[in-house]
Amino acid sequence: MNAPASPPTINPNRCLHCDSDVPFDSQAPTSGVYPCPRCAFALWCFRQPDGLHVFQKDVADKTIAIVAKQLEVPAEQITPFATFDELGADSLAVVETTMELETAFDVTFPEDEDQPPQTVGEAIRLVEQCLAKKKR
Prior knowledge:
Blueprint: E1 14-15, E2 20-21, E3 32-35, E4 42-48, E5 51-56, H1 57-71, H2 91-105, H3 120-135
Antiparallel strand pairs: 1-2, 3-4, 4-5
Helix pairs in contact: 1-2, 1-3
């Protein structure tokens, strides 16, 4: 019996569009939208104490729009580091939101996930992982 294929690991400083590390130096960027230095694809960057976190802007924007609609929270209040609990979501709302993300992005999240995403950023990463796997 073959083990199920696990989703690819996403490096938080990797552009999924051109599949390369994002070689930002330590002085730039701060938080904001920047083009990938290699392919110019729009990346959404957040500088945190643990380092720079890079998300595909289009995936992040669409994920945040879906989360905002599902949870009836203004999109401006949602960051990748916001927890679903902070946004007022109970466990059913999180499951419904993840199902809506699967539909909107035409992906299927791995069934072997121990628990649904806890933060919006985890949801964005999960979508990015599934899209990267689908791309291969």
